[in-house]
Amino acid sequence: MIPAWSGRSELPEPTGDAAEAAAETTAVEPGASFLADAWSELVHNPLFIISGAIVVLILAIVIFPAPFAGLFGHGNPHACNLADSNEGPRAGHPFGFDVQGCDLYANVIYGARPTVTIGLLVTGTSLMIAIVLGSLAGFLGGAVDTILGRLADVFFGFPFILGAIIILTVIPERNVLTVSLVLIIFGWPVMTRLMRSTVLGERSKDYVLAARSLGASNMRILRKHILPNAVAPVIVYATLVTGGIMVAEATLTFLGVGLQAPAISWGLELASAQTEIQQYPHLLIFPGLFLSITVLAFVTLGDTLRDALDPRLR
Amino acid sequence: MTLEVGRPLQGAPLGHERASLLDVKDLSVEFRLRKKVVHAVNGFSCSVSPGETLAILGESGSGKSVTAHAIMGTLNTTTAKVTGGEVWFEGRDLLRLPDRERRRVRGRKIAIIFQDSLSALNPLFTVANQIGEMFRFHDGMNKRAAERAAVDLMGRVGIPDARRRAGAYPHEFSGGMRQRIMIAMALALDPALLIADEPTTALDVTVQAQIMELLKDLQREMGMGLVLITHDLGVVADMADRIVVMYAGKAVEVSPVHDLYSSPGHPYTAGLLQSIPRLDSAEDELRPIGGAPPDMTRLATGCSFQPRCRWAQNICKGEPPPLRTVADGRRSACHFAEAVLHGDEAVLHGDQAVLVGDEASGDEHA
After folding, report:
1. Which residues in chain A have their CB less than 8 angstroms from residue B103's CB?
2. CA distance, residue A237 to nearest chain B CA (Å)
3. Which of A275, B122, B158, B165 is the most interior residue, by most CB within 10 Å?
4. Is the Cβ pair A142, B78 closer than 8 Å?
C-alpha cells in the first residue's frame, strides 16, 4: 500500500512561491486520492486486468454487435437456411448452425445484448433502491426501519424462481423490461438489508458523533460521512450479483417464462438447445460458454473491486 | 504522574462576580432502557468563565461524558432524555433552542474533542479534507482556501511537515498526531468553549503531556473556556483552574485546584486523593475507596456516597446534602464538609456515628 502523500515526497522543500505551489498541489482533490489509491491497487492486480478486459469486450459486443458478428463473413443472425439446420461448425460458421439453420455465432453475439442489459439494469436499479432505502432504514431506525424490514421480508418469503415464474406467467408481454422488473422486485431486499446493516454499523461510530458535535446536520452526516463508508460492501455485492442476475435471466428464459422468440438471447438459445443436447451439443456449448465467461468476468471484477475499495483492507 | 500540591495558579483567581461563559444549572439526564431507568446525571451544576479551565473529575460511570454530550446536544435521543435543568451559554438556554440554532452553536461556538481519535476521524478522507470541511461547511470557503487553512491549522497544532502530511489518511498518523488533528478540527472556527472528553486517556504519558501542553497554549492564545473531563487527578493538577468532582451524576465538590489537593472538602475527594501515589506523603500504602460505584438505576436516598463513606452518620442516610458554600470559593455536598475540610476527627467520628457495613470501610480492605 502506497500512502497517498508518498508520491509528493520528491517535491523540494517549499519556500515562498514554491510553498504556495506546493499547497496548491496538496489541495488538489484530496477526496480523489482515495479512489486513486484504489486504482493503483487495481492496476497491479492481474485478475482485475483480465476480468476488466473481458467485461470491456463484452460491453463492446453489447453496444456494437454488428462488427463482431460479421467477423467471419456471416453477420446477420436472421439469415437462415433450413437446409443447414443443426449443422456443426465449418468454415465461415465457427459455431455451426441452430435448429432454424441460422448462424449460431452471429446469434450468440447478438444474444449478449438482452442478457447483459438485464444483468446491468437489474443490478443498477436494485443498487439505487438499496442505497436509498437501506440508508434511510439504517440511519433513521424506528418505524421506517420496521416498515422497510417487514416489506423486505415479504419478498424474502417467496422462493425467487417460483415468485418470478408466477409473476411472469401473469404478465402478458415479456420483454427485457418486464423480466428486469421481476428480477428487481426479488433483488432489492437482499441489497437493502446489506446496506442497512452497514449504515447501522457506521452510524454509531465516533466519527459520526464527532461530525455531529462539530455542527453537521443529519442529511450531511448521512451523505458525507456515513454513505462513503457504508457503500463499498453493497457495491461489491452488486458486481458479484450481476453474474447471478444474468444466470437468472437465462434460467427464466430456459424455463419458458423469460424472453420470447423472435428475440435473441443466450437464455433462448440455451432453451432451444435443451431438447437436442445429445445429438447437437454445440447448440448448448457455445452460448453456455459465453454466458459462463461473462458471469465469471463480472464476479471476478467484483472480487477485485472489493479488495481495493474496502477501507478496512487498506 | 506526580502531583505538585499547592502550586500557584497561572492566572489570577477567578471571582464569582465574573460573567460566566457556560452555566449549567441542575442538569438531569436519564437513559430509559427497556426495564429500568438509569439516572446518569442528577441535578448537576457548574459554570465556566471565559478563559477558565474547569476540570470535571469523576470515576467511570459518574456521568461526566453524558454531561458533556448533554451540553453539546449530541446525546443519542432514542434512549437518553434530558429531564431537567438549564444550559446557559452566551445568554441563551441551549436546551430550549430549536435544532437548527443549536447546530449552529456546535462546532462554531462550542467544540468537543474525544478520547479515541482514530475512530473519531472519518477513515475515508484525508485529514486536510476533514479539517477543511469545517471551513467549507461553516464559513462557506471554497475547497482550495479551506485546504490551505487546514494546512495552517495543522502547523499550529504542531504537526511537523504539515503541508506534506495534509494528504494523508487518519490511519497513517500516530495516536498523538491524530489527537492534534482532532484538536485542529475543534479549534478551526475559534470556539468560545472547548470540551475535552478525556483527551489523553488513549495516549502514552509523554504524549499526554505534550497534548496537554498544546491545549494549554492554544487556550491561552485563543482565550477560550476549557472543560476538561478526566478521571486522572494528575492531569487536572497541571491544567485546571477549578475542579468539579462528580459522583453519581452530581457535583459533590467544587474547588479551586490547589485548595482541593491540600484539603479536600468531601469524603469522596479525600478518598480519591488517598488512592493515588504521592511523593510528598510518608505513607507507603494506598488506600482505595471501598465498595463499588453506585447502581445508577437505584440511587440511595440521602447522600449518594454514604454507602461507601467511612464517616457516614445517621443523617447521611436520610437527607441528601445540598451543594453549599463551605469556604471562600469552595462548595461541598457533605453534611460534615467543614469537619472534612479541617480534618476534625472528633466530629467525623462523633457520638452519632453509626455502624458502617464491612463493604463500606475502606481501611480493612486496604
Report:
1. 215-217
2. 20
3. B122
4. yes
- Please give, one letter per residue, the 3-state secondary structure of A105-119: HHHHHHHHHHHHHHH
Longest CA pairwise span in chain B (Å):
74
Q: Which residues of A touch B201 (CB under 8 A)?
A: none
Cβ separation B120–A215 shorter than 8 A? no
Nearest CB among A34, A209, A220 relative to B74 is that of A209
Burial (Cβ within 10 Å: 0-12, 13-18, ≥19) of residue A282: middle
DSSP, collapsed to helix, strand or coil, labels residue A263 as: coil
Strand partners, B229: B56, B197
Q: Which positions in chain B touch A216 (Cβ < 8 Å)?
A: 103, 107, 137
B108 part of contact set with chain A, CB < 8 Å: yes
Q: Please state, in angstroms and rounded to a whole number, the distance separating the CA atoms of residues B54 and B329.
A: 14
The answer to whether the Cβ–Cβ distance between B106 and A213 falls below 8 Å is: yes
Number of residues that this document lists for chain B: 366
Cα end-to-end span (Å), chain B: 21
Secondary structure class of B365 (helix, strand, coil) = helix
Rounded to 5 degrees, what are φ and ψ at B47?
-145, 150
Give the CB-side neighbour count of residue B255, counting CA atoms within 13 A: 25
Chain B nearest-CA distance from A44, in A, is 21
Coil, helix or strand at residue B311: coil
User: What cell numbers appear for B122 in the block?
Assistant: 472519518
Q: Which three cell numbers stand for residue A54?
A: 473481458
Rounded Cα distance, A118 and A164, in Å: 14
- This prediction has a pTM of 0.72
Nearest CB to A3; choose among B69, B107, B168: B168
Compute the 3-state secondary structure of chain B and give helix, strand, coil in percent, each to the nearest 5. Answer: 35, 20, 45
- Quote ipTM for the complex: 0.72
Q: Exposed (0-12), middle (13-18) or buried (19+): which is B209, by Cβ within 10 Å?
A: middle
Q: Which residue of A has its CA nearest to B150?
A: A27
Comparing C-alpha atoms, which of B120, B179, B124 is closest to residue B154? B179
Contacts of A3 in chain B (CB under 8 A): 168-169, 172
Q: Is B8 exposed, middle or buried (0-12, 13-18, 19+ CB in 10 A)?
A: exposed
Mean pLDDT of chain A: 81
Q: Quick check: B151 and A217 CB within 8 A? A: no
In this prediction, residue B22 carries a pLDDT of 92
Does pLDDT of A18 surpass 50? no
Task: For helices A104-140 and A46-63, give the axis angle rounded to 10 degrees.
Answer: 110
Cβ-proximal residues to B144 (8 Å cutoff; 6+ apart), any chain: A24, A27
Quickly state the pLDDT bin for B14 (edges 50, 70, 90). very low
- Residue A223 contacts B where some CB pair is shorter than 8 Å: no
Cβ contacts (< 8 Å) between A14 and chain B: which residues? 163
Whether the CB-CB separation of A110 and A269 falls below 8 Å is answered with: no
Nearest-5° Cα angle at A270, A266 to A274? 170
Q: What is the per-residue pLDDT for A311?
A: 57
Across the interface, which of B104, B148, B163 has its CB nearest the CB of A14?
A: B163
Distance from C-alpha of B58 to C-alpha of B268, rounded to nearest angstrom:
10
Sequence letter at residue A204:
S
Beta carbons of B164 and A224 less than 8 Å apart:
no
Q: How far apart are CA B110 and CA B113, in angstroms?
A: 10
A92-117 pLDDT, tens digit per residue, is: 788 888 877 888 888 889 988 888 89
Q: Which residues contact A191 (CB under 8 A, 6 or more apart)?
A: A126, A127, A129, A130, A134, A234, A237, A238, A241
Measure the CA–CA gap between B210 and B176, rounded to whole angstroms.
8
How far apart (Å, rounded) are the C-alpha atoms in residues A296 and A183? 20
